[in-house]
Records
---
Amino acid sequence: MATLALDTQPPEQSPVARFVRRALPIVGAIFLITFALIQILPFVYTLANSFKCLPVIGANPQAVIPVPPFGVPCMVDGSAVSASQQSSGITFNPSVEGYQEILNLNLPRWALNTVIYAVTIMLLRLAFDSLAGYALARLKFPGNRLMFLMVLGTLMIPAVVLLIPRFIILKQLGMLNTYQGLIITLAADGFGIFLMKQFFESIPEEIEEAAMVDGASRFTLFFRIVLPMATPALTALAIFSFQGQWNNFLDALVIIGGNQSLWNLPMGLAFLRGAGGETLRWHQFLAGSVLTTVPLAVIFFVFQRYFVEGTAYSGLKG
Amino acid sequence: MAQTLTPSSAVAHGSFMTQADRRRQEALTGYAFMAPAFIILLVFLIIPLLAAAYFSTTDWNGVTPLTRPDAYQSLGVRNYERLLFEEGIRQERFYTSLKNTIYYVLGVVPLQTVLALLLAVVVNQRWLKAKGFFRTAFYFPSITSSVVISLIFMWLFTSNGLINQGLGAIFPNYQNVTWLNDANGVIHNLLRLFGITRAAVGDWASVEIASIRLWDWISGPSVTMLMIMLLATWTTIGTMMVIYLAALQNIPRHVYEAATVDGANAWQIFRRITVPLLRPTTFFIITIGLIGAFQVFDQIFVISNGGPNDTTLTIAYLVYASGFTDQRMGQAAATAIVLFVIIFTFTLLQRRFVGDRAVT
């Protein structure tokens, strides 16, 4: 409607203005498509090259279309197969040797550790953050305001600044290089508490008052009535926490870096670099990158709405 | 209790349990609910920060057990003096990392904010089909691990990698650039194009300020640092775009319609309506951008280890290197505290501008 009204206005009828209005969507679309390609192509090439032998990656990284025969070997009669035998132009014969090698290099152990860290930290945060968020939102006790300010204050402490002090404290507690060292350190976070508090404050208090009158205790009330209503916030918190811990490198480096059998995937991948000496074994790195990313990508596509809404919510609330 | 059956039961209930009893019980519940999370934050965040402040005044090496009487000596503010004021290698390393971090922040924060805003505005257009696809495409990199992304970038930009091969195929005379091992500052490179070199500008360029020559202060980020800056921008614009998009969708349609009826063109609408209405969001995005950029670490660790020639040595990496590589835990703690003060100052400055709107 508005544009119709506008078209009848003489000043807007100038050819330049009309041209600009027509061209704008095209320029915008080109801009978007360019950026979408920049964001997506690195992953496409990573995926394709993770299925190549090392010489093929070096000689023909641009080949993205897999053609049969599949599962070609990288070594024949003790010498490396030449790149031209396994690829030409934009096609290549896929090989799974990069994956086989990285699976033999402790990757399953790192993956298991990553799952242990990500899941336990997520569950603990769901419990501890929502309890604390509820207390701050609803319960009156001396020090409530002060504790809230301290929780907010922790949000301003940059993770990097904690690198050294956490090392000192965990060393004193004898928790360096243990599972519990990493898990307990990260079992609650200011952001999660803040998110839950904001959410609980948005729930009408009358619902809880009604239940209180019926004689329910605060504990029953919290677990039976309040928590089920908080599913959206809990989902967002679960996703943020899981994603953050799946990718957590900094804390892992300091807290569990000293014991290889405790490493998570980012730690393992980061230190693969030095493992091969001078030659960088890209087929392993790329296979490892794909294996690290795929579980999170699956979760992302299944729960995409929550990722995006959670991010948007934290932005609007922040 | 049986009396919950009648409407007056609430009153009866109240007289059963005095007001003070109830308040006390609520307080106890509150502490019980707060306890797990608060103890964790106290032990692993707040006390460590205080411990860092304390150890920043010592020469502890991080290895000797603290139970030994000779584990460390108190140095007072010596660590800070060496970092900030006293000419020497530590001052040079610190100000090099400060310089690198400042160039990094000055490049990354404006770039990612502007790009995220532009992308969000275009994705928000009514004529756009496949909004969901674009949102997903932009957001996807930000869910992946920083280590994975760094490895992928290393591979793409390695000297005989995809980018160089691609450029070589397009431009026949292209000489491979060693993107990830090039210490030349981009401002120096630009100046050289105009014939301005260190030899040409005269002696003033050799004047040292804080152990770094004036000429080196104006180097700009090195080529390698520039690549890491692009990598960081590439990773974060998705998240920021989603935040902008949510804010854009909160702007009522009739605001735009009114402007269109008044004859405003697309640029005027963007400049006079969209940007001002997005102010709080922009401040939020700049804040999280600043906090993140000042802490850049993972990418440096994987890609460059602070090299070449210390041109990607950031403050965060210096904290790690002096604590764990050089085993100067006291020095590292002091560096960390300085970084904390810098980030805290920026956060406070930002809050002053936004007033009481933003919390983080």
---
Amino acid sequence: MAKVKINGKDFEVPTGQNLVDAAENLGIDIPHYCYHPGLSIAGQCRMCYVEQPGNSKLQIACNMKCSDGLEVITDSPKVKDAVKWSLEFHLINHPIDCPICDQAGECGLQDYYMEVGKYSSEMREHKQIKQKAVDLGEKIVLDKERCILCGRCVRFTQEVSKTSELGIYNRGDRSVIGTVNDEVMKDNYQVNTVDICPVGALTSKDFRFEQRVWFLKEVSSVCNGCSAGCNIDTHHKSGKHIYRLKPRYNPEVNEYWMCDDGRPTYKTANYDHRLTAAKLGGVELPTNEAVTTWMNDLRTLIATERTDEIAAWIHPDLTSEEITSIVKTLRDEFGISQFYSEDADKSARDDKTVDQLLKRADLWCNTQGFLKVTSALKLKLGSLNQLEERLAQAKINHLVIFGSEKNVGVQSLKRIRAALPADCFTVLISPRLQNAELFSHSLAIPSISHYEKNGTIMNWKKIEQKLGSDFRMFKSAWSVEEILTSLSQEYQRPQKEVSRA
Amino acid sequence: MIKHTQHYKNIRPMYVDLTPQPGEKRLLMEHVQVPNIHTLPVYESKGGYQALKKVLESKMDRETLIKEVQGSAVRGRGGAGFPTGNKWNFVPKNTDKPHYLLCNADESEPGTFKDRVILEHLPHMMIEGMIIGSYAIQAARSYVYIRGEYTYATEIVDRAIQEAYKAGYLGKNILGSGFDHEMVVHRGAGAYICGEETGLISSLEGKKGWPKLKPPFPAVEGYLRCPTVVNNVETLACVPWIINHGAEAYAKIGTPKSTGTKMWSVSGDVTRPGVYEVENGIPFKDFLEKVCGGMKGGRKLKALIPGGSSAPIMTAEEAMSCTLDYESIASKGSMLGSGGMVVLDDSRDLVQVLKNLAEFYREESCGQCTPCREGTGWLEKILHSFTERQARREDLQLLKTTSQNMIGRTICVLADSIAMPVLSYLEKFPGEFENYLQGSSNTSSMSGRVKHNG
């Protein structure tokens, strides 16, 4: 720890910590644009001025490491004036097109303008004209006029994704961000540059003009795109629609970043892709009635001691709690013994980094948790081939399918569908509409999507991470635990004898 | 050998009359007029490479060598005037990393062309100085970073280096001392900012010529993150004389704090513009009258830019009462800088001069730091509004505040290089601006120019 003095007060901070970060942790805001804790120090935005006693020249905080005896002042009139003018320099050629800018509401210029800005600009000259709405490929649009040339995006592609696709071209007030020969970006981490862009220069094609950020709420979750388990924030509006995912800092997992393949994983949670109501043979019915219908069939088989004709299909995208709940209810309570699943052992065995960065080969998000829970519960699991075999032998009369919401699970579901005998009672529990369409003749019960879940998943490093959602998109979609609890209650309810239809 | 000039036609040395003028004291330029002094045999016949022999054959202790240069109190001739010996002394003594010496021959400051004379006529003097300097800081490799437009000079320097290799002054085991040294010529691509110490390093590393944050300083972490010394051409050319004649002899010339001689490149309204070497401390008045032949056409001196375009301007009275050394010029609020003297007579319009300078600095700002990137453009636009007679009275204050907020706020001093002149012109020649305000058609704050609130 180092003893430092900021604004006359003594603090103890970790030795070697960057002064901007140290001050932020102490609740002292030092304005900055070019500094980002995940990137190298550029020192070019000239916003983070601090005064040091005995030094008439203002220093920049981002190039200072905390050490014993460091003494700085961040709020002297001299500092404030310098910061005010630095911001003015940022703004004189900025188009100030906030009403039509997608960054409005989360813009560094807007924020600091309110805090430290020079409210009346003296700029009366013609502004620099630069290109607007430059297409950088499939994912990003660049506005060169809004750009404040902090260089974060350039350093990101140089230092983190290591594609060096972005650079600053030309010089002086004609400087612009760009790619070599105006080629499109191929970087699979490029959307991170949108996140770290402090202004509206880089905007994501997926998100731009979709929603004003002040209507969005954030809730922390974990990406389900692969076994990396990148920490993210889900940005949703009133719990009705998810608009984007943004990486959340976790030094042990993903630092500040996530890959572009994980970004669109929220889409399957939105209305268009969702099974919004329970269906029996294509006819909608309330979810509780669907559970009753399911129980009715199940009860007959249990009552006639034909539980060996019941099978369940599970997969490693389910949370550890969901798997536990499935096993506890179906096996321990109802006595179902046949469980089949995707080959989690193989997924874990073949898991490796895809790009030396974050993305992993294993596309299931909870393979490690799945293996841990199933082995703790001593669950005997069959493979997809074995399930197909049993189905072909017509030895299964009742099949419960927990369908993945991701594309990666569809292939297996198609194979199951192909092997399914016409008279087998099938229950599909899934958030995904496409799955329900595949099993259109069956009983389909809507469950909640990954980004609505509360639960635990374990990444490839065996780090357990919580999904902490606090919203539900549809009342009809229940969590797996809720469905099973309801099923269990239904089972315990005294019933009239119902013969199997 | 690379033929740098093969694509250029009619390439020839800079036209400059190098005849010694009364009042000059030539240490470096003593033999500049000797035919073929740029070749090794002629240079050797005039005592060339004796200093290198003195150092290497006696295997002079590096500490002693640095002490000798410190003792001469020679200061960097590139503009900042930092004591050269001290700069060499900052290089860490015990590192595993290789050390580098870079010769800054990227002479691009408007009004400065004295290094060009050394490069074109006395390349061996610079090379000798570089080898001695490299020996002092234990650099196994040095680079001459030469301005891209100096095609003829590049050819001369390159040829001189080849000669030095052949003669055994470069390469392995130089003069049997066990000291190995390589020297490489690197051509710039036409950016003023690459003459800035760390901008030069970035450029040499193959990156965009952006100056680097300090700390770390180049002496600790410079070229390829190794200890590096960057010296000006003239500074390095001083070294052989200091070794040959001793630090004391050098320190006796000039003033106590500005020792030795200085080469001045004089342009503007004088009878004999050119490159001259004079003892530090001679009065400007004498320099103007005796060396430069007085004002052209007998006109009156109006103003003087003493040390390259980035030096604040001096009034005629200030100029006439100052002597040519670091301290005297600094006491008049300007700086000796690179010695690029621009003499302006009473026919000159200083607002036009300043606008011209602002255009240059706007063009050459690297665009890294916001105050410089945006400020240089802003200053140029405001000055443009003056020359277009569109300026308002408030613009005087705006020029001042903008400049004040650029000084000392950036990584390198390019912002200061225009902001300081702007402040000095405003302070010393307010009447010039007043002329434009009197004739200005812009009486309201809005007309003619776009107003942006923000």
---
Amino acid sequence: MSLQLQLVDIKKSYRKFTALNSVSLEMQGGKITVLLGVNGAGKTTLMRIMAGLENADSGQLLFNNQNIDCKSLRQVTTLVFQKSAMFSTNIYENLAYGLKIRKVPKEDIKKKIADALQAVRLSGFEKRRAKKTSGGEQQRIALARAFLLESNVLLLDEPTANLDPNSASIIEKAIVSRKSSDRIIVIATHNLTQARRIADEIVHIHDGKIVEAADVINFFENPKSEISRKFVNGELEF
Amino acid sequence: MADIIVQSFQQAINLLTSGNPEIYATVYRTIYVAGVGSLLACVWSIPIAVLLGLYNFKGKWVVKGFFNALIGIPTVALGLLMYLLLSRQGEFGSLHLLYTLNGIALGDALLVSPLIISFTANALGTADTQLRDLARTLGASGLRTNLKLIRETMWSMILSITAAFNRGFGELGIATLVGASLLGNGTIFSGTRVLTTAIALETNFGRFDVAMAYGIILMAIVIALALTLSLIERLREEDGLHVKLTFWRGLGGS
């Protein structure tokens, strides 16, 4: 049976601003779910709640039908941020950080890092200072760092924003290669063409609400809600 | 005026090359009080800074504002307070720290504490908030996340301690009042004389060239320290270990 992550009636506000309003959602392992929406729609807030970095004001999160709290969520999820953050160490140490926390033996760490860097086409970059690499390389390092942990839930917030097509293509291929029944992959993006390329399921979020959830073909060919139709056709004004 | 400056440079070189033990003793005493003062301040300032930088509590902004305000405390005012506390009738008179180098070092420690606390707390507080989230999403516990953030801001801490050292190195008020090296003809308490009090003393005696020479020595040490730190920072930023090793080998290291 594949993994399942469920969000039930999630609400989140920042003072008077409602970021998420009764969001309910279900994601399955073996599929890539794309959270689609314009900037400020609530995608990042939702990703942070799913990553266990923020508490929802109300609602439930269920992992394999069991209630799960923030601390436990952080043990099964890994979030790759839109603006990749790097520690002030070399790439090897950046990648090894999560593995060391998990007490992975030194020799295994070395091997895993070499494999992960190969997956994002950065073999031989181990000794470079992470902060000195380009934006595209940093995003690939961040991806490799997340891959290494082999988390059940991989959350990617705008993983290819502001990247050149070559870097974006490498990242997309690497993400698709991680698909498996024991892994849920969620990508937040506003990029329609990317969503069409890599998504199995689309969840369209607008003004903190889910306006449509459908498989990729139905969403693009036959959107049910008016907002989604306008978004797909590039007519949505915001 | 230009003559005095030229003479001062010559005098500074003469003083340094003369082998006069009092010159070296004065430089040593200055480094001692500023160094011991800064290190002593670290003992309480770093934990306070970590608390202020990494944890949230009610009234935190008031505490931060208080320490920010204390950065500018006049050294003479603090020197007077120290004098009253350390004098024989003072609360800490039994420690016999008045007119001693350790007394000046303690005063320096109090002087530079707000600086270390504010700079370090600020560095920790403004450390990329994403780094905190990153450590947490990679599985770090709260304590481990904080340790990582401290490590990430280590260089800022070193810079704040250096700034503290420089502040202690160039202060006059505490050295004058607690060290009392300006009293008498300058020989009674010469054991507590540091570069700044030596400058003041020589100026009082009208020996401007000697005073300027002391000033040049003081400035040279401060600049040398700043340049050394800049070099280390550059090596650190450039390419870490590789450049460091090359540099070391260039100096004949192995």
---
Amino acid sequence: MALPSGTFNQSYAQDMAIFRTKTQWAMLLAFLAFLFTFPLYSSDRILTIITIMGIAIISVHGLSILTGYCNQVSLGHVGFMAVGGYTSAILTANLGWPFWAALPCAALMAGVVGIIFGLPSLKVKGFYLIVSTVAAYFIIIWLVLQLVDLTGGADGMAVPRPAIGSFVIKSKASYFYLVMILACLATFVAKNIVRTRVGRAFIAIRDNEKAAEVMGINLWTYKLLAFFIGCVFAGVAGALTVHYVAFACVDQFPFMNSVWYLGMLIVGGMGSTTGVLFGVVSLKLLDELVTIVGPMLAVAVSPQAASSLGLILRGLVIVVFLIFEPRGLAHRWEMVKAYYRLWPYSH
Amino acid sequence: MNFFLQLVISGFALGMVYALVTMGFVLIFKCSKAFNIAQGHFVMIGGYLGFTFLVTFHLPIWAALLAAIAVAIVMGMTIERLALRPLVGQPILAVIMMTIALATILEGLATLIWGGEYKAYHGVLPTITIQFGELSVPPEMTIGLLVSIATVIILVLLFRYTKSGLAMRATAEDEQVVQSAGIKVTTVYALSWVIAAVVGVIAGILLGGISGVMIPMSEVGLKALAVALFGGMDSIGGAILAGIILGVAENVAAGYLDPLLPAGGGLANVLPFIVIIIVLVFRPHGLFGLADIERI
């Protein structure tokens, strides 16, 4: 990491620090303070948008570790979210477990299912792996629909509001706090996983699988571990999705969402924790733009134009990023930071 | 027994259409090692084009097919030139995301132009009844069966006996050698996209004539994926055989097992994916594909 002029690392602790300077700490605290006082001065609608962004951030962090760092592309991420969501729903609604106990079980369950569907990754890669994850999604959703007694099938099932002790998380603001705490935690964990021995092994596998194997990285262990970690994040996000609306049904987990999660990674930048935040926020903001502009377009031009606007815009954004900035917004952000650090002597 | 044979026959007719869709997919993969997720969307666009030409413009079937093919040629060339060519040499994920983004844009365009509604044109396609004793090919499927067989034969002849077919086969073998022999690889890429779009659109008109057309019709592209993997990604013969096997298996499984399952089954939709997982674990190169031998 490039440091501001005049700052030098003098110990390993300083070298490893994510937040190195006082300015960075001040900015972090200011941001957290802003985030956690946010419900005090914003409308319900904006809270909803940010809560959904938070859930997506948790999920995309998992995908980022799996795809961005370990290069195991998954188009079935939403399927693993569904596993987490339904596990939590069944545990809380049918068995009466408390939310705080069901959430880790949902995460574990999603992770285990992820390992099962990650097994082909040992034999196949690239496109073949992508297809096997697509297959994973459709098989999971089909199973959910078939297990009518457990999941309510296509009708869905009601899920109790999460409660911690006697405090029921019911209002938008309290759910916002729950999601934000978990999203900050997920960002922190994701950032640190990729800095550990495990994360470096993932990066080695991404850059050159054979070389990694020769270096002594056990592909079997680490690829499955990548699937496990990625799907644990997905499981948490799935559980949060289900409890947010107090209802679980397969329509909450559409296939195209996995595609948009990959799109968020591409827009944000592969292999970067900040990129996840950029990608999720920018694509979700694009969605909001569409919901605002759409009705105007329906009046001004035609209702068809309005309903096609979202699809065409999102497709175009991904096309533009793939052609003109494959390294994503995170790379642009680094360039901006470098510019300000070096200004006015840019060389 | 009759029930079984009837299922096999209609499965065969369906399988030929799958084979047609898959051929476009396999062709692009053979030539440019790109995976076209949007293949199913070509089919959907084809279905809507069929509606426009057959119902709105009242064209006869042959004119409608020709008009749709003309549109498909323009579509294939535009897509290759604007979207895929800048990505030559990029990682595989970039190409796949590009075709997914294209798929979304095509879906958006279909919504924009045709409103994304269900359009049916039953009975517009000519019906021919073929009878084997007590068994019969469903009349609305016969034309699909005939046109798919004809298209497949034309494509095979094209590969075998024409110069551009030779260029495509050579490109599949080794790009660098082809370039040094003076063949423009970009033209071959463009041609493969054009053919893929054309066969997709033809399949779309045929499927549209059987069950009508709507946006979710593009899911047939996912089945084409299964067929391609099963037959071997780079084998055209494999695509045809696997298409027929999967079409028959899907029909038979749906006919016998669906009544046994809770929630009405829906096995036909998930069977391709179960096949994919099994094939990937036990025989990743499919029935006739080239086994990938990795050396360090």
